[in-house]
Amino acid sequence: MVKIFTIKDLNIWFGSAHALKDVSMDIYVNEILSIIGPSNSGKTTFLRMLNRLNDLNHNCKMEGNVKFEEEDIKNIEVELLRKRVGMVFALPLALPLSIFDNVAYGVRMHGKVKKQSLKDIVEKSLQEAYLWDEVKDRLNESAFKLSGGQQQRLCIARTLAVEPEVILFDEPCSGLDPISTAKVEEAMVILKQNYTIVLVTNNVKQAARVGDRTAFFLNGELIELNKTENIFTAPKDKRTDGYISGKFG
Amino acid sequence: MRNPYRTQKIAFSLLFLATLLIVVPVGLIVIVIIFKGFPAINWQFLSDIPRQGMRSGGIFPAIIGTLYLVAGAIIFALPIGLLAAIYLSEYSKENVLNRIIRLAIINLSGVPSVVYGLFGLALFVVFFKFGASILAGSLTLGIMILPVIITTSREALESVPDSFREVSLSLGVSKWQTIRHIVLPNAIPGILTGTILGLGRAAGETAPILFTVAAFYLPRLPKSIFDQAMALPYHLYVISTQVPNVDEKIRYGTALVLLALVLFMNLVAIIIRYQFRRRKKW
User: Fold this and answer.
1) B281 Cα to chain A: minimum distance (Å)
2) For range B63-90, the mean pLDDT
């Protein structure tokens, strides 16, 4: 399997709080890597490290070696890294624009595109995010008129439109009802064919449903990382077992 | 015994009374000025130059002078104020120096306007040798309203949710593009509020223009930005205190025109702001 991210001895601090401790792992191309763990375990910090969104926090200090396709992420131009490593946030964060403009936003900012090809990109992205049929007749309406689940799929489409290689999902279904959740999950499984997906989730069952591999974080440490079926059927660490069987967390 | 319903009623009455105390004086001022000034308003009053030592004729040069000064002040202060606000809200890091700068800007808006007048006299009139001129007066007014514009614009920029910035940045969009296309458009209503406040202040202040531009009596229109000009607030001051036997009607008429001018500018800005607010959808 081809590595896309190589992470070695990663440590992250926010001020004096040690958020991630000596984390080392690889992420492979075209897999869905689920990251589970109780809140405050460093999952989101890990995710936001991958596209350097942690840089926005001036308190954040990072040590260790993180390579994206053989190149240290510190040496990659941050805009380029974020373009290639897209992100979908926990809350559906539509921009105050129309549905079309939301999806087209990133593409437009990255340079001139012809009107027709922009339309094509928007349509393709919305289709990939399973939203096209629901919005194709009202692309010029405000994105805020969509339901929460639709907005979240809009956010996925917006991320897809800039053609990333990796998509980071930060608890993408935490605010969604079960049907919307199922739709987002369905989209993720299809997307896996063309993209690498890292999914942070509070929902252990979701990790079991969609993840190829699952990582368990606790208090900033990577406790266990293995194939999803192994994690859920035969966890090596007591703490993993405790967490997935609902004994704590 | 404590009765929560009565307590609530008392609190409500107090709040209502406080609001009334603000509204009544404002209303009275406006009503008095309208009643006493309205008889003076006619086409000649608005379009003619002052005559007979300002005891008759119109106030046209003063209206034009005030418009020039306000326009000049905004042209100078809005771009600079906005850029400074963008820097302070989006780029400056939290440190002691920046905190001092922010505090200084807030404090500047409390500096008495006559101090700005003296500053303008020393810097623009004397040092830069602009003389008493529209340019010097506009710049002085501009500097006076800068703190208001910077503070309100900064607050408007900071009130745009951080999540919008994060979304934009996470798409690989650069910071400047994010500010330009996401943050600024959503901050425009607040920025306009600051501009409205600045406009009103620039139009109404007497002290800053006293030494830098205002002409006691100049019965013609200014020819260039290096010319002196009459201005409504100063003209009002002059005909109220410096020239004897000016008809009360003319004084209140001048006040009414000044008031109407400021209200009209505010109205325009409020309409623009309303248009933008309607588009804002979060």
Assistant:
1) 6
2) 94
